[in-house]
Specification:
Elements lengths: L14 H7 L29 H5 L3 H8 L9 H8 L5 E11 L2 E9 L9 E7 L3 H4 L18 E9 L4 E10 L2 E10 L10 H18 L20 H8 L5 E6 L5 E6 L4 E7 L2 H7 L15 E5 L10 E7 L3 E8 L12 H14 L1
Antiparallel strand pairs: 1-2, 2-3, 3-6, 4-5, 5-6, 7-8, 8-9, 9-12, 10-11, 11-12
Helix pairs in contact: 4-6, 7-9
Length: 359
């Protein structure tokens, strides 16, 4: 289980954030797992325990062996109550082997049941340190500490574009574990609640405090096992196309074929999103004029996006499927893939396989 850290330029931010607000700024969404915190076992009505019962692990030990699921630290209703939303839904799980100086497990929430799109993300990073964990804040202005939260913390608020998209972030260190909250809202109606600054700080502090209290003494983050159609994606094919092995996974499977699959590696990353909400299908589908792979689904756009100087841009693909679904594929290439401005045939075949698998 890798917990070491080395800086690398990430050419793409979390797809969940880009779909919601078209911007990035900080690490985003963790591990597979169920919901709920039930007892998970029956107790004996009386008498001495049998040898089999004595050797059976307690539920806490089971959870530790399975690794931390960031989505189980807080219930959806607890988070919703803290920010004043009527209800929230888990929309993404992510595990990454090397982010922010350690191993990451993340969970994203939205006030709509749309897998892959995020309004708030809670990340837990195991085995990190102050320098690595707070590095993403190095060039941010307006940072300040929130009283009595962790061993060190920093909070920041900022806007992007025309100022209609708002980001609020809180990073906290406790021992060698970092906790990162990222909240996004915009000025359009119907999205995540727009809180005044004092209310936002109070809400994020309450959420972070509860999450910290529930962290185990030793945070273990397992590789994760993808669910549903996410488990059928050929990761060997992905490794060939992206130039790097994908070793971690997280997924959320919704209704009507909607899903979010997150795969991570030391050098490469892959995010898959299947959208079935009619309004989003209409807005996210590829216009006929932009289709460059007409025999993929009902028309697809497959491209390599531009990136900063010295960095390889990410793979970005959108596939129309029958007018009722859109499949979106976003991937970070490993350095071994080499520099490119157009998708290689292997990348197009990866997108074709994914669209056939989840579409």
């Amino acid at each position: 289980m890798a917990t070491g850290w080395r800086r690398r330029t990430v050419a793409a931010c979390g797809l969940a954030a880009t779909l919601l607000v078209a911007g990035c700024g900080g690490s985003d969404s963790g591990n597979n797992g169920g919901s709920g915190n039930g007892d998970g076992g029956a107790s004996s009505a009386g008498g001495d325990a049998s040898p089999a019962e004595e050797t059976e692990p307690e539920p806490e030990e089971d959870a530790e062996a399975a690794g931390l699921d960031a989505c189980e630290l807080l219930t959806e209703q607890e988070v919703a109550t803290a920010i004043g939303a009527e209800a929230l839904h888990v929309t993404s799980r992510r595990v990454a082997p090397e982010v922010d100086g350690g191993r990451l497990a993340g969970c994203s929430y939205l006030n709509e049941d749309v897998p892959g799109i995020a309004g708030m993300t809670l990340n837990v990073v195991a085995g990190t340190d102050d320098e690595a964990f707070f590095m993403p804040f190095a060039e941010r202005e307006g940072l300040y500490a929130v009283d009595e939260l962790g061993e060190r913390n920093l909070y920041v608020g900022y806007e992007t574009g025309d100022g209609s998209v708002h980001f609020r972030e809180l990073r906290i260190m406790e021992g060698d574990t970092g906790l990162h909250l990222r909240y996004t809202y915009h000025d359009n109606p119907g999205g995540m609640p727009a809180l005044d600054e004092d209310s936002m700080v109070d809400a994020m502090t309450a959420i972070a405090s509860s999450a910290i209290e529930r962290l185990p003494d030793q945070v273990t983050i397992a590789d994760g096992v993808p669910e549903g159609p996410c488990a059928e994606i050929d990761l060997a094919l992905a490794a060939e196309a992206l130039g790097g092995e994908l070793t971690t996974a997280g997924s959320v499977v919704g209704e009507d074929g909607a899903l979010n699959c997150e795969f991570g590696g030391v050098d490469a990353e892959l995010t898959v999103l299947a959208v079935t909400d009619p309004a989003r299908v209409a807005s996210m589908g590829v216009p006929a004029a932009e289709v460059n792979v007409p025999d993929l689904g009902d028309g697809a756009r497959v491209r390599v996006m531009p990136a900063d100087a010295g960095a390889q841009g990410p793979l970005d693909a959108t596939v129309n499927v029958g007018g009722t679904k859109v499949v979106v594929v976003s991937a970070v290439y490993a350095p071994e893939a080499g520099a490119m401005s157009e998708p290689a045939p292997e990348a197009v075949e990866l997108v074709r396989h994914i669209a056939a698998t989840v579409g």
